[in-house]
């Protein structure tokens, strides 16, 4: 009983500090289902707490369990992550579009200021517009910092496939940033016409 | 050893993979070769770095207080 109590306390110590990170990841993967996803992840994590090698690895360990839980959920719903036909966006360059359109004429660091005009909810909305197949690798690699090989392992996809989806996902994200900024007048009052 | 010169479109397509060090040494050298003379692609590279930093800065969001409370309780009741 004593050791169970200790294990429970150890688990709490690892899990509670990771809740913001877990919830952030869950929201980007599952949207409105984020809270349920975090709860299922926590249950699984608690049951396999023995497999955590060191408390410092707790963040990565929990996030990996969360991604596995998300993937299993898709499988349960018999939902496959489908390739989505996206029109050719290879030629789109946000860097060039910003330079050509000059939406912030008084800025000395135009490109950076464009990015900094996006708040957290804006970024979330932009991600939500992306098909899951491109959003998930992008979120894992560039927001949550997993190595590309780890992403491939977590998604059970070949490395080449993940690289191709990251490339397309990044292009889509850039285009959606631009489109969203226009649609919600994000740069209004910053000197854009 | 003459490296094939790659056009801007190909260099830009490879930039994020270049930053991630997942290109083969040959492709890495081709992008390096292109960046050595192309100012515009150097700008694209700088922007790609800014965009990566920007994305990484969004890793942790604040949890709404009521959700945080429910999740904390959930952990404690496991």
Provide key terms for this protein.
heterodimer, A: 193 residues, mainly alpha, Rna Polymerase Sigma Factor, Chain: A, Arc Repressor Mutant, subunit A, 9 helices, 68% helix, B: 78 residues, 4 helices, 0% strand, elongated
Q: Count the DSSP helices of chain B.
A: 4
Sketch the topology of chain B as an H/E string, one letter per element. Answer: HHHH
CATH class of chain B: Mainly Alpha
Based on secondary structure, the structural category of chain B is mainly alpha
Radius of gyration of chain A: 20 Å
Q: Estimate nothing, just give the exact number of structural domains of chain A.
A: 2
Helix content of chain B: over 70%
- Which geometry of chain B do the CA atoms define? elongated
Strand content of chain B: under 5%
Indicate the mean pLDDT of chain B. Answer: 91
Radius of gyration of chain B: 21 Å
Multimer state: heterodimer
- Sheet-strand content of chain A, in percent, reads under 5%
CATH topology of chain B: Arc Repressor Mutant, subunit A
Output mean pLDDT of chain A.
88
- Most extensive interface between two protein chains, with residue counts: A-B, 44 and 34 residues
Determine the structural class of chain A based on helices, strands and strand pairing.
Answer: mainly alpha
Ranges of chain B with pLDDT <50 over ≥5 residues?
none
């Amino acid at each position: 009983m004593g050791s169970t109590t200790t294990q429970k306390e150890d688990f709490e110590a690892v899990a509670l500090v990771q809740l913001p990170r877990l919830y952030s990841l869950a929201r980007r993967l599952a949207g409105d289902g984020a809270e349920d996803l975090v709860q299922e992840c926590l249950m699984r994590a608690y049951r396999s707490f023995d497999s955590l090698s060191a408390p410092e690895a707790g963040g990565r360990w929990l996030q990996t369990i969360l991604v596995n839980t998300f993937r299993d959920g898709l499988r349960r719903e018999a939902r496959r992550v489908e390739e989505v036909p996206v029109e050719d966006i290879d030629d789109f360059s946000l860097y060039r579009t910003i330079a050509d359109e000059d939406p912030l004429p008084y800025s000395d660091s135009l490109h950076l200021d464009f990015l900094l005009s996006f708040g957290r909810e804006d970024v979330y909305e932009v991600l939500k517009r992306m098909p899951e197949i491109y959003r998930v690798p992008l979120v894992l690699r560039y927001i949550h910092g997993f190595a590309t090989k780890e992403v491939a392992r977590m998604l059970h996809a070949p490395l080449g496939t993940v690289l191709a989806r990251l490339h397309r996902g990044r292009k889509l994200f850039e285009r959606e940033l631009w489109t969203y900024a226009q649609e919600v007048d994000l740069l209004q009052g910053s000197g854009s016409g | 050893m003459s490296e094939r010169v790659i056009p801007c479109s190909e260099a830009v397509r490879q930039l994020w993979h270049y930053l991630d060090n997942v290109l083969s040494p040959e492709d890495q050298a081709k992008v390096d070769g292109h960046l050595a003379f192309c100012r515009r692609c150097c700008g694209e590279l700088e922007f790609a770095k800014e965009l990566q930093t920007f994305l990484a800065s969004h890793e942790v969001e604040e949890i709404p207080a009521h959700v945080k409370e429910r999740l904390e309780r959930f952990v404690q009741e496991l």
